[in-house]
Each structure stands twice: as C-alpha cells, then as structure tokens.
Amino acid sequence: MDVQQTRYSAQEISALARQIDRPIVLVGMMGVGKSSVGKRLASILDCPFVDADDEIERSAQMRIPEIFETYGEDYFRDGERRVIARLMAENEGCIVIATGGGAFVNAQTRALILEKAVTIWLDSDVDTLVERTARKDNRPLLQNGDPREILTRLRETRQPFYAQAPIHIVSGQGPHVQTINKVLQELTQWL
Ligand code: S3P
C-alpha cells in the first residue's frame, strides 16, 4: 500500500513522519490485524517494521506453538517481555512494532511501552476476530476449545489493559486502508 491510497497527500505524510520521534506500538487482540496494519503503516511512513512475535521466534529458534508446547505459556511470556524490552531499548526513533495479543497485559511491558512509545489499541468485534484468526492455525491459545468463546473471554479480560493506550482505533471488516486512515488521523492529532 502506498501513500496515494490513503486520504493524505505525500507532503502531509512526510510532515507527519518527521514529527514521529518514538516507536509506534500496536496492541490488541489476536486477529485484529496488528501485523498487516503495522507493515502498511510503516511503509507509508517510511519507517522500519518489527513484529515482536517474529523476534521471539528468532531468539528462541522455535515457532510459537512449539514454544508453548515444549516450555509452556509462562516461558513464552517471559521471552515476550524480554524481547519487547530489547526492542524498546534499541529503537528510539520512528519504527512500527506489532506486539502479540497478550504482551500488553504484562505490567512491566505495558509501563515500558506507555512510557516510550505512541501506543495504539487496535480493536475489532468478536465476529471479526473469529473470522480472521480462523485463517491460520498458529495460535496455541485457540487450540483447546471453541475459538469464539476463548476470544470473547480474552477480549473481555484484556480490555481494561488495552484501554490504557492513548489511541483507540476500531478496525472493521473493511479494507485495511480504512484503518490506516484512522491511524494517520489519530497520529496527526496526537503529535
Ligand atoms: C497471543 C497472541 C499471539 C501470540 C501468541 C499469544 C495472545 O500473537 O503472541 O499466540 O496471548 O493473545 P498475535 O496477537 O499476533 O496473534
């Protein structure tokens, strides 16, 4: 996706990008589109993009389902916390970071992100999350039980944490460019 597809001009986008002096961190439920939106946003702003889940897999040299299966969720969460702390320490300027759905629940990670980044909560209704997560079977938390029930419960329990992000964007079932336009609008107002 390039600048032309948004409702902003190239000049407006580069003026916005110049003002971004810290990481933009996307938080929210699995399936909401943090990675897809994050990649496109980074390319429009001409900033790097990092997916924290990919970084965890790279450091552990294992896929996420394998980490859960072999060492359990607590071990994964510990790795997740350390990887995000490293990403926040290594990156001060403009970079877009997509986090795993549970990362922002950790108090230390949440405090660090809120202090050092512009945090954006991407939010969708449960139907959208169910539809989008059904496209891949790489999410261990959805393997044991009914995904709709699990997603509904997790969305409810995590909401108070996500709601601490200063920017809240509802991402519907439409094309990602709609969400990107909302993100650009919010960033313009926030900066
Ligand atoms: C998780 C979300 C996943 C991944 C792991 C746990 C969660 O990331 O970190 O499967 O607890 O919600 P995505 O949100 O990118 O799917």
Automatic annotation (TrEMBL):
List keywords of the entry alphabetically. Amino-acid biosynthesis, Aromatic amino acid biosynthesis, ATP-binding, Cytoplasm, Kinase, Magnesium, Metal-binding, Nucleotide-binding, Transferase
| Record pathway | Metabolic intermediate biosynthesis; chorismate biosynthesis; chorismate from D-erythrose 4-phosphate and phosphoenolpyruvate: step 5/7
How cofactor binds (record note)?
Binds 1 Mg(2+) ion per subunit.
Q: Name one Pfam family in it.
A: SKI
Chain residues that bind substrate: D53, R77, G101, R158
Transcription keyword on record: no
Q: Which reaction(s) does its UniProt entry say it catalyses?
A: shikimate + ATP = 3-phosphoshikimate + ADP + H(+)
User: Which Gene Ontology molecular-function terms are recorded?
Assistant: shikimate kinase activity
Q: What is its EC number?
A: 2.7.1.71
**Localization, UniProt:** Cytoplasm
Q: Where does Mg(2+) bind?
A: S35
Residues holding ATP: G31, V32, G33, K34, S35, S36, R139
Enumerate the cofactors the protein uses. Answer: Mg(2+)
Q: What's this protein's function?
A: Catalyzes the specific phosphorylation of the 3-hydroxyl group of shikimic acid using ATP as a cosubstrate.
Q: How does it assemble?
A: Monomer.
Membership in a protein family: Belongs to the shikimate kinase family.
- Show the HAMAP family listed in the entry: Shikimate_kinase (MF_00109)
Name the UniProt record assigns to this protein = Shikimate kinase
In which organism is this protein found?
Answer: Novosphingobium mangrovi (ex Hu et al. 2023)
List the top taxonomic levels of the source. Bacteria, Pseudomonadati, Pseudomonadota, Alphaproteobacteria, Sphingomonadales
